[in-house]
Design brief:
Layout (H helix, E strand, L loop, with lengths): L2 H18 L9 H14 L5 H10 L4 H8 L10 H17 L7 E6 L5 H14 L1 H7 E7 L2 H9 L1 E2 L9 H7 E4 L2 E4 L1 H4 L2 E5 L11 E6 L8 H14 E9 L12 E5 L4 E4 L5 H5 L12 H15 L3 E6 L4 E4 L1 H7 L21 H13 L10 E10 L2 E13 L5 E10 L1 H57 L1
Parallel strand pairs: 1-2, 1-7, 2-6, 7-8
Antiparallel strand pairs: 3-5, 4-5, 8-10, 9-10, 11-12, 11-15, 13-14, 14-15
Bound molecules: S-adenosylmethionine.
S-adenosylmethionine binds next to helix 6.
């Protein structure tokens, strides 16, 4: 078989995976992909990509093992120890110092594999802040394109061999030994939101103070790396830091990231993005002459995807139609959840479709669009998961066609946990203040009566004086 024939078969294989397994591997370095594919093909004794494609078509379950071979999940606690020491000694203190004592610290472990990296981060942050402060202030996102890896990471259970690089003091403080396994403390795990996220495709998280993406970019082609770095730039706050893997370098000519320590692969957010850099994120179809409708649809999609709030669209029968990245992270959604009935998903506990959607359905019967279009709001809804308790304001808006018929419903979730905490704190302070005021009032009353007694004693004393004086003159 000629080289170009083999190349064509390889491209057809990538195309098949993109269309049928929802995995777009076109942004990965072809050399690495081919090596890993051949590895899998050898296990199955298949000689060329064409035959392997046929095998894939006949065995749809093959997508799983193939992706496990391609997406190398290798990870470790405190991997490249000196880099983590530098992060703990130089960078984490800077992040803490740049914040108000009650301000949130947001961290993203992107490409977290089976979780060792994110739990290393938790230990270092908890050591720097103290556990109470850590629990109140830190929010961590841990994402990976490999859903099996995310499940492993969420489980947080490791073998003897896995934990050998954890200093013994930290191991006993942060892990519980359950039978033969070491399980990361549940209470601290609650601060982590785990989710599926494809760095080469999905919109980034936002307002991140520390973005850790180690040993992932190395598998991407230069162009995919450049796009991912633009997304990272968007994700970070102006004082945010990026922490890469030892074998990774930034090849950007313009410094959208400024090296803080090249040796430890730590960078600060650098110059602002240019329009060209922003345009890198456009889907390729738009670089051809796009018609206005396609452009408009793209704009809507981008606005939905990049919204800082979690958003869902549910169809009239209560099935989940769309979810943006924030919603994937908040509700731990998987791609396979799209199309499922909301009430069968975990989030069904929160947006009980039979209440909200029916309420909206009833209301929209009376609507005459677009002027009468209105939304419902539910404040401070409690959302309890293994990762902790979040308070959400839910805004529910009907999506109507031009004739006013209900097509579906848009749910927007605004995280108000911090407000709820502050309100509780204010109530606590107010009641402490009322107590102090009451005590002050009582003290003042005692003081007033003592004053009065003192004044009357003084008057008595004065009259004794006068009498004595009178007697001495008489
Ligand atoms: C070698 S592991 C690195 C794990 C960890 N960051 C560390 O350094 O210990 C690479 C991880 O990147 C993930 N990955 C590969 N492509 C990705 C993508 N497009 N988006 C998100 N994660 C990806 C893989 O699934 C894998 O878990």
């Amino acid at each position: 078989m000629s080289l170009s024939e083999s190349q064509l078969e390889f491209e057809a294989l990538l195309d098949y995976l993109k269309q049928n397994c929802s995995y777009d591997l076109t942004g990965y370095k072809h050399g690495t992909l081919m090596r890993r594919l051949r590895c899998r093909m050898q296990q199955l004794e298949i000689e060329n990509y064409g035959n392997y494609l046929q095998y894939l078509q006949n065995h749809p379950d093959e997508c799983g093992p193939l992706l496990n071979t391609i997406l190398i999940n290798y990870s470790g606690f405190f991997r490249d120890r000196d880099c983590w020491d530098y992060l703990a000694n130089k960078i984490i203190p800077q992040i803490i110092a740049s914040k108000h004592p009650d301000e949130r610290i947001r961290v993203w472990s992107a490409g977290c594999a089976s979780g060792q990296e994110v739990y290393t981060l938790v230990m270092l942050l908890a050591e720097a802040l103290g556990i109470e402060q850590y629990l109140q202030r830190v929010q961590i996102f841990a994402t990976d394109v490999d859903e099996d890896a995310v499940v492993e990471a969420r489980r947080a259970s490791y073998s003897d061999k896995d934990v050998t690089d954890i200093p013994s003091g930290l191991l006993s403080k942060y892990f519980q030994q359950i039978e033969q396994r070491y399980v990361f403390h549940f209470k601290l795990r609650r601060t982590i939101i785990f989710g599926h996220h494809d760095l080469a495709k999905n919109a980034p998280m936002s307002k991140i103070d520390l973005l850790v993406c180690r040993n992932v970019l190395i598998y991407f082609k230069t162009e995919t790396q450049a796009k991912t770095l633009v997304r990272f730039h968007i994700a970070l706050t102006s004082k945010g830091f990026l922490f890469l893997g030892n074998a990774e370098s930034l090849s950007n000519d313009r410094q959208i990231f400024t090296p803080i320590s090249l040796k430890h692969r730590i960078f600060a957010k650098g110059q602002n993005l240019t329009l060209q850099e922003h345009l890198l994120l456009r889907p390729q179809t738009l670089s051809k002459k796009a018609d206005p409708l396609t452009t408009q649809i793209h704009m809507w999609k981008a606005a939905f995807e990049t919204s800082p709030f979690a958003q869902l669209v549910v169809d009239r029968s209560g099935r989940l139609l769309l979810a943006n990245e924030q919603a994937y992270a908040l509700f731990g959604l998987k791609n396979s959840d799209i199309g499922a009935r909301v009430q069968d998903l975990q989030m069904g506990r929160l947006i009980n479709s039979s209440t909200f959607i029916n309420q909206l359905n009833c209301d929209t019967h009376k609507l005459k669009p677009p002027a009468d279009r209105h939304s419902l709001s539910h404040k401070n809804r409690e959302w309890v998961t293994d990762n902790g308790t979040t308070y959400l304001d839910i805004h529910i808006t009907p999506i109507l066609d031009p004739s006013g018929k209900l097509l579906g419903t848009n749910f927007t979730f605004v995280d108000v946990t911090r407000n709820v905490w502050l309100k509780d704190e204010i109530e606590r302070l107010n009641s402490a203040l009322a107590k102090v005021t009451q005590e002050l009032k009582q003290t003042k009353e005692v003081l007033d009566s003592t004053n009065k007694k003192f004044e009357s004693s003084q008057k008595e004393l004065e009259s004794v004086h006068q009498e004595l004086e009178f007697r001495s003159h008489s």
